[in-house]
Every structure is written in structure tokens, then in C-alpha cells.
Amino acid sequence: MESPANNITMAAEQQVTRSLETGVSINQLITNSNLPLSSPPQTNIGPILLSVNPYTDVGNPLTLNSMRSVGLNDKLLRVVQDAVRQQSETGYPQAIILSGMSGSGKTYASMLLLRQLFDVAGGGPETDAFKHLAAAFTVLRSLGSAKTSFNSESSRIGHFIEVQVTDGALYRTKIHCYFLDQTRVIRPLPNEKNYHIFYQLLAGLSQEERVKLHLESYTPLNLSYLQSGDTRQDDVEDAARFQAWKACLGVLGIPFMDVVRVLAAVLLLGNVQFVDKSSSSGNNGTVTEVGVNGESTLNSVASLLGVPSASLFRGITTRTHNARGQLVKSLCDANMSNMTRDCLAKALYCRTVATIVRRANSLKRLGSTLGTLSSDSNESVHNQADVASQHASTVGTAGSKSSKSMAALNNAVRHATDGSIGILDMFGFEDPKPSQLEHLCINLCAETMQHFYNTHMFKSSIESCRDENIHSDVEVDYVDNVPCIDLISSLRTGLLSMLDVECSLRGTAETYLGKVKAQHRHNPRLFDPKPVDARCFTIQHFAGRVLYDTSDFLETNKDVVPDDLVSVFHKQTCIFGFATHLFGSELKALYSLETVPRGISFRISPTSHSDLLNGDEPVSTLTQDFHTRLDNLLRSLVHARPHFVRCVKANSSETSGKFDRGTVMRQIRSLQVLETVNLMAGGYPHRMRFKAFNARYRLLAPFCKLRRTEDRLTEDCLLILQCVEEEHMKSPLLTQSEVSTSWVIGKRHIFLSEGIRQQLEMLRSDTRHRAAVLIQAVWRGTYARKRWPLLRRNLEMKSGNTGGTSNLSSNHRTSNGGGANACLPSTSKASAPPTLTRPRPQPIAGTPPPDPNEKCDQKIIQQTCTLFGLDLERPPPVPPSRPYTVTGNSKISYPQTRVMKMPYPEDGKGDVTLGKGEAVVVVGASSRRGHLVVEHCNTSIHVPFQFLELKPGPAVSI
């Protein structure tokens, strides 16, 4: 027999799944179970948004431009508006965090959020900033997406898009990328694919381009780096995506052929196979040398990379060692040479992605100085400013003008980037078979994001209530995943730290796994696989158990490429500038000393300049670098106000419109959605300081009753909450709600339930709206009454002294019942006012009317604007005033004699007054638009042109 607690849990699960199927918000579901069904794929849990991936067709999922045709989503738009509002009101950085399993639609939701963020604060999708970001996003999606066993459009690169906002307007965007899945470049898993760009490249290149890139006879079936995975391909769709990718490279200003030369070289490298062969060398006996199968392919790779074929072969097959200060060169065997070849392929691909990210982040906007700073994909804007200041101090002379200007620039950057809105789309939880080191890092990232959510939603709320002796009727029993994070990433005994030690000792997978099992033999989250394997272990993650194979852990973690190979790309031997640029930092550090090569290694992933200033090799590994960047990301998130979007995939087969309750239920349990529902429905998830609460909600209480002193803040808070309770009692719908609307006064905070927070925000919004309407009404009335005398005189002039204006004044006074305009003067005549209508312009004779269905060709308009230097987003400047007047068919130059049609100034309070009917001399057009310069009594007066009438006289030729 099931316990009552289990029955409650099952009922809550059924409510959550029903809300996901119907699109009804959970708060509404709690208050009313008979709501009509609808079909949006999002639902709210208080401020938390739960989004379901329905796997419907959304066009090209790899482009941000495809979001233009998608209708705006109200719930996602509300998240963006809330983030923009809080950032503008408080100046506090905001972070929209998307989390969920792989395939749950995080990237699609992030693109929708970006599009809506530009609609709210960035001027819309037609601005240059959006076009640049869309181009960068499209290029990076093709380079960083691949088909996995769970997701056909899986993002293998994590993104944190940081949007700088100033005064509620978007200022600049910056993309931070987190690239982990390097092994996929050389060896995708059996049922998975390599990165999409390789298949798009083969489908979209023209025959001429194929010849230039030495790819004329290659397909996914005969390329080694592609044939080990899924080789199925949709040529038509891949070709279309490749053309879009090519166009976006042009928007970013990146040469297309430079990038595809590197990508083609990566593909061809896989077909270069090194083999051992024996040769005799006199008295030395038999010496094993390395040969190559596919020498023509190696020559093609060397040609694409702009290096001599012999130099490339020597860089791959030889190795320099430093033995106690003596440099010794040795020949590598075939196995080592093939590993070095794979390292080169991974290095070329990773560095190409990083170069494109830096290029996308260095784009300037009008009026921006941020583009002058170099940007690194792994550093924040603030850190980059600090790095730039360090470089400035070492390059220039101390105290020079250049260093001072650089310091001023860095200060301006730091102040300009204080307010930001970040959209985080990081890796989702994965369980491939077999799982490798990159998957362990990906799942560590998912664990960390889950821990951040638990800390922000549950732990901080519960501990704050406990610290201030606040009792809550709802006990939230959430699962803390800190033990799993400690197992993987603790400083000394974590799996990653032990892996780094084993790499330094040149150990093996067996020795590493033996030490891990000895150290964590009592850890309940580490298991032996069944059947037992000497190279595998299992970890219990928050979303399930994952089996990891350590066979390639050590080699993947080293993440190095030897300097023998890096030195090949120096500008003395490499004629391909883009390839030299990919290794620019390493070459600069390597050639800082005379001895090249000297037996050091560099990271496959690009390394920042600061790590290579001493000319030595970096000490970090792949896991150390990722852990450092993850810590920096968490540091940024901790200082921001988070907004959570929890993503759920509707089924595991990527079937459109299918809702698999079992799959959704497992995700709901792992994401701890039920615990969130319980906390929002009956707990105290929100807390505010007394001063902050008073400052935000004091407009809800009568002004005369507020104390408004520091020592009476608690009394003011109680008064505000009492007023809210009175409003709550007036609403029958709210009084019937089962959602808690309670609040508690603590020692330092006011603890609020989700229900009372929503009421406070709703009343605050209504109060501000009513006040704004009242202010607008009063101002518009005052402005209309002030402007009425001038408007009445203009009507009198146009009526031609028919008496219509006096009757108009009389009627206006009568209709207002002697109100605000009762004091307006009137004349004795009482004729009907004339109807003042403007005649419609007639078309030119012989010109056919325009066709309303005919649309302008935007391409022709853009070409015309480019030809004449025009900007569609900026109107042309106002032309200067003419030095003459046209009357009839004649031109009359200045000075002119004109007659005043009415007195000026109207109130007669000026130093010099001009009476009605007085003749004056106009000497020219005024700099003030719509005014003329009148010389009167040796004084220049700027008079509106409608006050003057041209005196008839002979025309003056010009």
C-alpha cells in the first residue's frame, strides 16, 4: 500500500505534466482545475519558466535569422522584459540561464530570447548590431553543432552571450564560447556525426572551389575523419545552409577561402596515414623509419596550409627533447606520428573557431570605443580591460600620454559595461556510450548549473528562514548534488585533479583508475560497471548513472601540440597568413629565444598572451582550463540577478508533437520541478531588506500615513502590507486561491510568498499606470489651454473675417459649459463656422496610380544607397535655407520689404515690438528653422514667417 506522501507526490507530478501538455500555468492550475486546454509549450512556476521542446519545424535551426519568421512568444518575452526592467531600475547585471538535458531546446529558446531582446532594447532585427550577431551565431552554429545519439542539432560549444545595456538601450554584444568536444573532429562516435560544417562544405562547394581545395574526388564515405560516424547526408539542405554560412562570413569580414582552406586541410589530414618501415644504414644495423601512405594527400594538405611538404612531414614525424639542457632530436614511430597528425587537426579546427569568435567580438559600432580592445573568447569584458591596461604599461613609456589615454579608455570601458544582460546556453546532461573525458566535463557543467539553481532557489531560502527564526509550513526536501561535484572536481582527491597528477607522472588508464577506486572506494556515487572493466567506472549524476571509459582520458587531457610542428607555421616558412595567425601567440613566445624548436609543447586550444609571456609552455591541461573558465563563469553569475528557464524535451525520438509522459517525468524529477512548485505555492522563496521593500512599494500606501524615517522602516512596511491585504480582500478571485499569500517580518528581511509578491507587483504596476495617465491628462490639458489663443488667431486668418471664429469660440464655450475656456473673447457675429479641410493632392496628368501590391526591391534600394553614400537608418541632413524667395514664377532676393500680418511678440512683452500692418525689412533667412531675420531699430529680430506677408513689388532677377 502506498504512503500518503507518495500519493501527494504522484498527484503533484500529474498536475505538472498536465500543465505542460495544456500550456496552463501551474499557479492557475492550483487555483482552478477546470481551465480550458491550450497548446503553448511553456508554463510558469512563479518566476521560473518551464519550456518544452515540441520538435516542430522552425526552418533552419542553425541560423538566428530564422527566428524572424517565428512569432513572438509571450512567456519568453516576459522574461526579457523583466530582465530589461530590473537592469534599468537597479543597474544590476541580469542573467537568463537556460538549463536542461541535451535536446531540450535550450539553443532554440536562446535564439528566441536574443531576437526578443533586440526587439525590446536593441532596435529590432534590422539593425546592424543584430545582423552582426546573427551572422556570428550562424557561423558558430555550423562550426559547433553536430548530430549525437540524442540530438540531431546538438550544440557542442557552450555560449554565454553578454549584452551590454545602457539606459535601457542595447549597447554591445559579446560572445563567450566554451569548446570541449575536440575528439569529435578526428573520431566521432559510431552513431554520431562530425561537425555540421564538414558535410555542408562537401555539399555546397562548386566544382571550381573543389579543385582549388583538392576535394574534387572526396565524399563522407572516403574521408577518414567522417566515415567512422554516421555518413548519411541531405545534400540539398546542407548546400543551402553552406551558402548562408558563406554569406555570414562576408558580413563578419572574414575571408571565405581562408577558412575553407583550413577546414579542407583538416579533412584531408585524416587520410594521411603514417606507417613504420625498416631500412639498413651501414654499421648501425636496422633503423626504423616512418613512411606515409598517401603522399599526394600530404602534399595537398601542405599546399592548403601554405607550408613546404617536407617541413610539414618533418614537423609531424620528429620530436625535440631537452635532456638536462641538451637538445636531442628523435624520430617518432608511426603511432606517435598519427597522434601528432590528429593533434594538428584538432588545433587547426579549435583555433579557427576561436579566431572567428574574436573577430565577431571585435566588430565596432557607431560611437563605440570598445572595438579598439582585443577580445578573447574565454575572458570577460572586465578582465579584458585589465589585460589591455597591463599591455599598455609594458609597451609605452611610463607616464606617457599614450598610457594615460589607454588608462582613460579602460576606465570608460569599465564604466560603460557595468550593466549587462547575459543569456547562458551551456551544455546539457548527456549519457553517450561510451562516455569520454569531454562528456565528463560536460556533465560536470550540468551538475554545476543544477547546483547554482539549487543554491539560489532552495538553499538560500531555507537557510535565510532558519537564520531569522522564520517557520514555514512547507518543508522543501531537495536533493543536494554537492557530493557529486566534489567527487569530480575537488582540489586534491577529485577525479580531474587525480587525472592531472597521472598525466604528469606519465601513467596509464589502468593505474589512474586503480588510484581512483582506492581513493573513493566508500563513495556512494562511484560504482564499478557490470561486468567489471579495468578501464571503466560509473558515476551517479543528478539525472542518472553514466558509464565512462578512461582509455583516452590521459591523452585527451594533455591537449598539447609539439613546438616542432608549431614552428612550421612561422612566417619565414609559411606563406598562408591565416594559418600563421592561428598560432600567433605561440610563435611569438617560441621565437622570443634563439633556440627553435627546443622541446616544449603548447595547448591544442588557443592560449591567452599572458600565459606565454615567458616563452615557456603552458602548464594547464584541458580539464584545468575548463575548470578555470567554469569558475569565472560562476563568478559572473553570482554577481548577477538570475532568471531561470528550465527546458524539457517532449520525447526521446525527436518526433514532432509527441508528448512522452515517462520521458518528461524523469526530467521533471531530475530538474526538481516538484520541489520548486511546493516552494512557490506555500513557502517563502523571496526576501527583501526593509529599506529596499519600502523604496519599491511605498507608493501603495497613503502618503500621509508613512513615517519615512530610518528608524520607522518596519512600521512603514507593515502599513504597505496592510493596504495590500485590504485590496486582496476586495478581489473574490484572489480570496479563493489556494496559493499562499502570506508574509513574515524577520530580523533583517521581509519574507514573501510567491502569491503576495505577484500581488505587490500587480498593484505597483496599476498604481504607476494610473499616475502616469493622470499626469498626461493634466499636462495635455494645460498645454492645450496655453496653445489655444495662437490656434484661434490662425483660424481667424484662414476664415477670412467671416465671423466663423467668433461662433467657433461661442460654441466651444457653450459646449464646455463655461469651464476652462469660458473666458475666451467672442465677436458679435454668429454665422456658422466654415469647414476647414485640406484639399487632397491630385496625381500628375498621365501618371498611372501606384499599384498597392507592388513591392520595392530592397536589393536595388540598398545598392542605390551604397552608390550615393546614403544610410537607410539615418535621414539625410536638412538642406540650408535659400538666399531668396520664390513668388509666382519669380525669385526675389534679400533684403525684402514685408508687412506684419499680426503683432509680434503676441504678448507685447518684448524689447522691440512689431505692430500689425507695419512695414519691416527682412534681411535674410534665420538659422532657426521657419524664421526670418528682420532689421528694426538697429536690432535683429527672428520672426516666424507666418507673421509676415510679402509686400507686392517688382521682381528682382538673380
What report would you give on this structure?
Among the domains are: 273-280 and 288-362 and 559-622, Myosin VI head, motor domain, U50 subdomain (Four Helix Bundle (Hemerythrin (Met), subunit A)); 437-540, Methane Monooxygenase Hydroxylase, Chain G, domain 1, CATH 1.20.58.530; 686-730 and 737-768, no CATH class; 888-950, Roll (SH3 type barrels), CATH 2.30.30. It is built from 32 helices and 28 strands. The longest helix has 46 residues, at 754-799. Helices cover 44% and strands 16% of the residues. It has 958 residues and is of the alpha+beta class.
Overall residue-averaged pLDDT value:
80
Query: Main beta sheet, described?
Result: 7 strands, mixed
CATH class of the domain at 273-280 and 288-362 and 559-622: Mainly Alpha
Considering the protein shown, what is the CATH homologous superfamily of the domain at 273-280 and 288-362 and 559-622?
A: Myosin VI head, motor domain, U50 subdomain
At CATH level 2, the architecture of the domain at 273-280 and 288-362 and 559-622 is Up-down Bundle
Q: Briefly note the CATH topology name of the domain at 273-280 and 288-362 and 559-622.
A: Four Helix Bundle (Hemerythrin (Met), subunit A)
Structural class by SSE content: alpha+beta
Number of helices: 32
Beta-strand content bin: 15-25%
Question: How many whole angstroms does the radius of gyration measure?
Answer: 36 Å
What order do the helices and strands come in, and which of them pair?
Layout: H1 4-22, H2 26-31, E1 42-45, E2 48-53, H3 74-90, E3 94-99, H4 106-121, H5 128-144, E4 145-146, E5 154-155, E6 157-166, E7 169-179, H6 196-204, H7 207-212, H8 224-227, H9 235-252, H10 256-269, E8 273-280, E9 286-293, H11 295-305, H12 309-317, E10 318-323, E11 326-331, H13 334-361, H14 381-395, H15 401-416, E12 420-425, H16 437-467, H17 482-489, H18 495-504, H19 509-519, E13 526-527, E14 536-541, E15 544-549, H20 553-558, E16 560-562, H21 563-566, H22 577-582, H23 584-590, E17 601-603, H24 622-638, E18 641-649, H25 661-670, H26 673-682, E19 686-689, H27 690-697, H28 713-730, H29 732-735, E20 743-745, E21 749-752, H30 754-799, H31 804-815, H32 858-868, E22 884-887, E23 890-893, E24 896-900, E25 919-925, E26 931-936, E27 939-944, E28 948-950
Helix pairs in contact: 3-4, 5-9, 5-13, 6-9, 10-11, 10-13, 14-15, 16-17, 18-19, 27-28, 30-31
